[in-house]
Amino acid sequence: MAVDLGEVAIYISALSLVVAAVALGWNIYRDVVLKAQLKVALDVVEVVTPGLGSDGTFVSLTGTNFGPGDLIVEKVWGTSVPWAKRVAGDRSGFIVMNPVHGDLPARISAGESVTLLYPHQEESFLSKRLKRIGLVDSYHRKHSASRRDVKSAMKRYRDDFASSDDQEAHA
Question: Which is more confidently placed, 69 or 117?
Answer without folding.
Answer: 117
